[in-house]
Every structure is written in C-alpha cells, then in structure tokens.
Please model this.
Amino acid sequence: MDAYDLIVIGTGPAGEKAAVKAAYFGYRVAVIEKAPHYGGAGVHTGTLPSKTLKETALYYSGKYEKGLYGIDRELSKETSISDFMHRKDYIIQSENESVRNNLLIHKVDIYHGIATFMDATHIHIRGLKEQIIEGKNIIIATGSYPSRPKEIPFDNKRIHDSDTILDIKHFPKSICIIGAGVIGCEYATIFSTMGTKVFLINRNDKILTFIDQEIIQIFLKQIKRDGVDLLLNKSIKSIEVPRVKEDPLHIELDTGEILHVDMFLFAAGRNGNTKELQVEKLGVEVDEKRETIKVNERYQTAVPNIYAVGDVIGFPALANTSMDQGRVAVSHIFNTGDLEQIAQVIPYGIYTVPEISTAGISEEDAQKQKLSYNVGIARHADMARGKIMGAKDGMLKLIFTNEDRVIRGVHIIGHLATELIHHGVGLIESKRTLNDVISKMYNFPTLHDLYKYAAYDGLGNLSGHKIKK
Ligand SMILES: Cc1cc2nc3c(=O)[nH]c(=O)nc-3n(C[C@H](O)[C@H](O)[C@H](O)COP(=O)(O)OP(=O)(O)OC[C@H]3O[C@@H](n4cnc5c(N)ncnc54)[C@H](O)[C@@H]3O)c2cc1C
Model:
C-alpha cells in the first residue's frame, strides 16, 4: 500500500494549491480526483466558464465599444451557440491541462476514483482500479454541487442548474432564472447581453445584500435597461414542460403570475460534496442541511489529522478563498511558516455586466456599526481614461470614518471593477487615509484616477456639505 505525508481529496482550486504547496516543500503527496478531468468547479463548471462566457457575450454584443466613436455595433443575430461556447471550451481545456501539469511537475501522485474514508488515515479509492492508500494527514477539498429541489423537473435541455447551463444547444429567446445571488445575476447579464429576455426571480426584496446597496441600485437600473426583469419577493409555484418542444415552458409564480419562457435556470444554493466521503463516522462534523464540514480557524476538523478547505466548508465559497485556505491548511500541517491565515480583507468580484467589486464595509455596515462615516464618489465617465474607453456608467465609492479619514470600504461598479478593487484592498488593509490617496501618483490616464477623485470628493463632503452620521 502506498503511504503519503498528505492525501488531498479533490483537484479544484483548494485541492490543487494544497497538494502542490506540500509537494513544493518536499512532502510526499497524493491527490484523489473522481472526475476524469482536473480543476473542479473552478475550471469546469463555475468560475472560469462563466467568466469566459461573459467576455464572449461582451465581444459578440460589441458592448465594450458601445457609444465609442458614435458607433453602436449591434449583436450579430448569426452568432451561433458553438461560436459562443468555443472560447469557454478552449479555456476549460487549457486550464485543465495547467492543473494537471502543475500536479505532475511537483511530483504529486494522482489517483482517479471516488474517495471514501476507511479510518482517519486510510482512504479507499473506487475507480477503474480499487485501491487503498494511507496518509498521515488528509485534506478534504471536495467542493460543492448545485442544489436541485425535487419539485423542479430538471431535464438538462430546457431546465437547468448552473452546471448544465454550460451545455445548452441553442440560445434561449427568453429565460427565467431563480435566485438573484452572484451566480444568478452573472448568468442573467450574460444572457441579456446576448439579447435574451431575462426574468430574474428573487425570494427577498433585496439582492446581493453583502454589497453596498447604492452600488446595487445602479446595477439594477443598468440591467433593467439591458432587458432583465427583476421580480422581487417572488418564488415559483410550478413549472410545466409542454409536449411540443418548440412551445414555451409554463412557469407559475407564487403570486399567480405566469411566465412563458424558452429556458429555466435554477441558481439558488449549493451543497457540500460530503456524501461519498463517509467522514461522519470518524467524528467529523457535517452540517445536515448544507452538507458542509465544520472546521476551526486552521481548517482542522474534529479529527486532528483531517482538514477541510474550499467550498466543502461553506461561506465564502470562492475560488480565491478556497486556494488560500488550502495553502493555510498546509502551513499548519507542516509548519511551513509562510501563511498562517487567509487575508482579512477579501475582495469580492461579481462578473456581471456591468462588473461589481467590493472590499471592506458597506454604508449599511457602517450604519449598523454606528460609525461616524462619510463617502467619496468618482465616476468612470468623468475620467480621461473612462472617456477614451467609452465608459458611460460606472462609479467608485470610498467609505471612510470621519474622525481619522481612514478608508474602510471600497465599492466599484463598471469597467475593470474586479481589477481596480485590489488597490482598494491595499488601502483598507494598511488603513490608508483620504490624504494618503490624494498624495499618491498614478499613471495618467488610468481608471485608478477614480481613487484620487473619490478621495477629493470625500474631503469635500467632510468639509461640511453632506456629512452622513
Ligand atoms: C457559476 C459559478 C461561478 C463562479 N464564479 C466565481 C468567481 O468568479 N470567482 C470565484 O472566486 N469563485 C467563483 N465561483 C466559486 C468557485 O468555483 C468555487 O469556490 C471553487 O471552485 C471551489 O473550489 P474547491 O476546490 O473547494 O472545489 P471544486 O472546485 O468544486 O473542486 C472539488 C473537486 O473535488 C472532486 N471530488 C468531490 N468529491 C470527491 C470524492 N469523494 N473523491 C474524489 N474527488 C472528489 C470533484 O470532482 C472536484 O474536482 C463560482 C462558482 C460557480 C458555480
């Protein structure tokens, strides 16, 4: 039987980075992957495919250039679904290879099959070959799967979850999406950018509540303009699939409203991949509803040599946090001394059209914490670089505390928001003030100027005009 210093279960962002880091530090490492490919949801069904489809939608719709030189390039109606999917498939294939090569270069042994715990150090692998391997330490990085409520008749043709939507064979003329969370909003704007009529349904009266709601109001205005009908405080009662496949789906909402649409996407909630592991029998705590694993701040479960990282432990369930959780777990297991915890200020990127990115506290948070705070705002359209890019909408908002002018939150909507945010993360982390931002030198013309103008706006607000308490 092969024996390892570390066995990692799963090759998604969390598992890959954990395995490679331990191997880099000279330990004997194995990964077990049940899929025939590498990279998990990060590469195959989640992060990268949806981001590529967004870029593709922008490319085909000509939205990046809309308004530039007075030309509005209209969406080519001839764009075929295979054209649309082509780049996504290429990126998946290319990143799949990158993950595989990364594991091989670092001499990580790869096993294919379903991993199940026999005891705290032995894993049974059910693949083409049945095998048992031994590990002094084990990291569970098995990710999550989209929830599929029983009452929804998923057929993977017209009624989809966020995995199967990537295999559609035609563009829907209209689509109903349940769940206006990050995934639902991203797909809503990808489809609307491609000219699809979108109904986005949300159970509550607010969406994306972890983001500053002023930014969300701007977002809502823009997506409405782009053909997304957001239906708040609603959920679905039933879906009828017609016998004739050309006929629309008949969707009844709990309010009695009826929607006739081509396609349906359920994008509300994911559960941890824990069933096959049978790890509860060892004393590892698994949440019954969410199927997620409970860990401490070192990502250690109740069984000391078993760790869990990434989506399988639940919130925030992002690729960036998953990767670093994997690296942090390895630091603790082998005492590598390089990374004791993941960053305290996490950037959240929402790859909608328009993009949103956020770090630190929102205005709502500041109010809840009863901070004496103020804001400063700058708009893409007022920046020289913004004009060159043809950016009509878009805004950066700084939130700072009045007494010290320290920046506590940065919120961006519009072009390059997910790139621009990292400067903001640095400002929040190092407790920089408005004056620090004003004294910084940026390239000109760049969108980073947004920071400087928002800082000046903040100082103006602070000087007495619009103080917020
Ligand atoms: C539509 C969508 C968009 C997203 N967009 C973003 C984004 O823009 N930015 C971002 O940061 N995050 C995004 N995410 C989230 C991101 O994809 C996940 O947080 C990330 O993939 C989690 O990584 P992981 O390694 O924990 O799990 P996964 O990537 O899910 O990998 C888990 C791996 O474990 C394997 N496995 C499971 N069970 C077993 C078993 N018993 N034996 C062997 N192998 C097993 C699976 O086959 C899989 O390969 C998105 C997710 C979705 C669904």
Notes: The pocket of flavin-adenine dinucleotide is lined by residues 9-15, 32-35, 40-42, 45-47, 50-51, 114-115, 141-144, 162, 183, 273, 276-277, 310-312, 317-320, 322, 349, 351 (CB under 6 Å). Residues 65-73 have pLDDT under 50 and may be disordered. The two ends are 66 Å apart (CA to CA).
